[in-house]
Recover the amino acids of this structure.
């Protein structure tokens, strides 16, 4: 049986700051603080972090052609259905990508969870586990041809 929560209250604040430098480097930092509550039970919602933060930098390695992107993500701890907590974690991702290297061809190679951080997300009512282990370090290669 699936039942929606009747009424939820969320309060919070967020900000984002971004910039671009003359050498082509770009950056962005963002943060959000949110408190969520089920008004029927008065409990904090499950899988709802109070703190989320991201930091992104893009470095040009070859002007307007090849770039290196770095992203750091932070997710605060979250309550599980069993009332326990999924620990807070940091994840680092790196991507090497091209634009306009050859007409119509874009290439990217990414490493997600660069430092192989072990972390779990809260499971839902449809899962047997209270915490679901997430992937460690993963790789992706992407080729796109536009015509």
């Amino acid at each position: 049986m699936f039942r929606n929560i009747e009424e939820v209250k969320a309060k919070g604040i967020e900000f984002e700051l971004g910039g671009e430098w003359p050498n082509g480097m770009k950056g962005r930092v963002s943060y959000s603080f949110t408190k969520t509550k089920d008004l029927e039970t008065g409990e904090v919602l499950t899988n709802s972090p109070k703190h989320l933060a991201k930091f992104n930098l893009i470095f040009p390695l070859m002007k307007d052609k090849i770039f290196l992107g770095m992203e750091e993500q932070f997710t605060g701890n979250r309550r599980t259905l069993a009332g326990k907590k999924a620990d807070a974690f940091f994840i680092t991702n790196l991507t090497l990508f091209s634009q306009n290297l050859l007409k119509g061809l874009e290439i990217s190679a990414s490493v997600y969870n660069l430092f192989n951080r072990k972390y779990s997300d809260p499971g839902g009512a449809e899962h047997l586990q209270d915490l679901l282990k997430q992937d460690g370090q993963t790789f992706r290669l992407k080729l796109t041809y536009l015509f």
